[in-house]
Write a structure and sequence with these properties.
The protein folds into two domains: 6-80, Ribosomal Protein L15, Chain: K, domain 2, CATH 3.100.10; 88-330, CRISPR-associated endonuclease Cas1, C-terminal domain (Four Helix Bundle (Hemerythrin (Met), subunit A), Up-down Bundle), CATH 1.20.120. Helix content is 47%, strand content 15%. It contains nine helices and eleven strands. Strand 2 (15-20) and strand 3 form a beta hairpin. Helix 3 (101-129) runs antiparallel to helix 4 (136-155) and helix 3 packs parallel to helix 5. The protein starts with 5 loop residues before the first strand and ends in a 13-residue tail after the last helix.
Length: 343
């Protein structure tokens, strides 16, 4: 089983990364701030524009260490890639199925079955654990509506129908999402999903977490030899990691939505960490981003029993395990792709 290593997040806008021997050197104003051994790092995610030295980029590519550059708000800029890993026959099979509308349906529906099932767990848990603070009947009704969408997805024979069912389910789920916000209601009220840019605090938080999760999925898929840009549910588009977006569908409720709710309900993030621009978009300050990333890393260290493997693994390995299971299905080792079901 793959070992969960550390992810180095660079959130300061005025630092530069370089290589010194086998160490990553973080510099600020030409002064060394910190040195970190390369062998302790699995991914480097930079939320700044200063960049990294060519030597460090080459070392990361050679050692299969992910190096990704995002804007401070989490918008993707660039990724350093080394040699392609995995069997070329696996990628050829991926491309073949992706080009076949009907062959893609089984995989695409599995992603959505996982997503809707996990969305239902989020709602059912809230109704059970916070019955005195939420409208239980409303959450139960939304959960039953998602169950009906699940049945429709299982019978669907069209990618376009699947996209329609997913859109309908998302409307139901986000229609009751505000019920799940138990603290700081005025500062984090959820009205509707908004992005590019996010128009309120809770959407800014969700978008940031989704960006982090997308990067995790890209790294996981690349590590098992799959092309993260060739998907089965999301259509191919230049620069869009369609397969990573496919994979993250089933993981969003578990990784991002639950963490966003926990951060708000435990008051680990507050409204003072968010700023609304004149354009209407909402940004987070450095301290809030750091708080979110710390919580993300702590969440990754938790141990769960994987529902398909029946083995205990660290939470942060779930994207890698799901990518591995997808690769096994494409190679013909499994009869179907088993989505991740959160219990």
């Amino acid at each position: 089983m793959k070992k969960l290593l550390n992810t180095l997040y660079i959130t300061q806008s005025d630092v530069y990364l370089s290589l010194d021997g086998e160490n990553i050197v973080v510099k600020k104003e030409d002064q060394v701030s910190i040195r970190i051994p390369l062998h302790n790092i699995e991914n480097i995610v930079c939320f700044n524009y200063q960049g990294a030295s060519p030597a460090l980029m080459g070392a990361c590519a050679e050692r299969n260490i992910g190096l990704c550059f995002l804007t401070p708000q989490g918008k993707f800029l660039a990724r350093v890639s080394g040699k392609v890993h995995g069997n070329v026959l696996l990628r050829k099979q991926q491309f073949k199925i992706s080009d076949d509308h009907f062959a893609s349906i089984g995989i695409a529906s599995s992603f959505l079955i996982g997503k809707l099932s996990n969305c239902r767990v989020v709602l059912e848990r809230a109704a059970r654990d916070h019955s005195l603070q939420v409208d239980v009947a409303q959450l139960k009704s939304a959960s039953m509506s998602l169950k009906e969408n699940l049945k429709a997805i299982q019978k669907s024979d069209s990618i376009y129908d699947l996209i329609g069912f997913e859109g309908s389910a998302a409307k139901v789920y986000f229609g009751v999402f505000d019920q799940l916000i138990l603290q700081q209601k005025e500062d984090f009220r959820f009205i509707q999903r908004s992005r590019r840019p996010p128009l309120d605090n809770i959407n800014a938080l969700l978008s940031f977490l989704y960006a982090i999760l997308t990067n995790e999925c890209v790294s996981a898929l690349s590590s098992v030899g799959l092309d993260p840009y060739v998907g089965f549910l999301h259509q191919d588009r230049p620069g869009r990691p369609s397969l990573a977006l496919d994979l993250m569908e089933e993981l969003r409720p578990v990784f991002a939505d639950r963490l966003a709710l926990s951060l708000v309900n435990r008051q680990q993030v507050t409204a003072k960490g968010f700023l609304q621009k004149e354009s209407g978009g909402v940004l987070m300050d450095d301290d809030t981003r750091k708080q979110i990333l710390v919580a993300w890393q702590e969440r990754k260290k938790e141990t769960i029993q994987h529902p398909f493997l029946k083995e205990k693994i660290e939470f942060g390995l779930i994207p890698h395990v799901q990518a591995l299971l997808l690769a096994r299905y494409l190679r013909g080792d499994l009869d179907a792709y088993p989505p991740f079901f959160w219990n």
